[in-house]
Design brief:
With 136 residues, the protein is of the alpha+beta class. It has one domain (6-129). Helix content is 38%, strand content 20%. It contains six helices and five strands. Strands 4-3-5 form a three-stranded antiparallel sheet. Helix 3 runs antiparallel to helix 5 (77-94). The protein starts with 5 loop residues before the first helix and ends with a strand. It binds zinc ion (ZN). Residues 98, 100-101, 103, 117-118, 120-121 line the site of zinc ion.
Length: 136
């Protein structure tokens, strides 16, 4: 299972999504499918059923070369902080993972916006203009 699409992700995590699409139009960048799937699995295993009922996935997308995973949750501050930490780990992983193919990658830019691509995907004609950024 690659979890390339939102519906695959929703089917795999019924307690988290409850059959509802994210409130805001979303995409599941295929190279990050495993990261998003593992995050959803972690949320489902670490929260109990009552807590999961109080969570709504708001939006999943790429922004500035990193995963954004937005949700609303009516939980205690302690549980919200725990959730935030889980999501932060996934978002950090995405910054080092090609959002096209899932291989190790780094941030790149085309001059207008940031994206995360591996060298092989950067070499593809469509993305030939992207250059890796150096953040040292
Ligand atoms: Zn790639």
């Amino acid at each position: 299972m690659e979890y390339r699409t939102l519906s695959q992700l929703m089917d795999a995590h019924p307690k988290l999504f409850k059959g509802k699409l994210p409130r805001v139009p979303s995409e599941n960048p295929c190279g990050w499918g495993k990261i998003v799937h593992e995050l959803c699995a972690q949320m489902e295993s670490e929260l109990d059923d009552a807590e999961l009922r109080k969570i709504r996935i708001e939006q999943i997308k790429e922004k500035f070369g990193a995963l954004r995973f937005y949700y609303s949750a009516r939980l205690s501050k302690e549980r919200l902080l725990h959730l935030r930490a889980l999501v932060a780990v996934a978002e950090e992983r995405s910054k080092q993972t090609c959002h096209a193919c899932g291989q190790p990658a780094e941030l790149a830019t085309n001059g207008d916006w940031l994206s995360t691509y591996c060298q092989a995907c950067l070499a593809q004609p469509m993305n030939a203009r992207y250059q890796p950024l150096d953040f040292e």
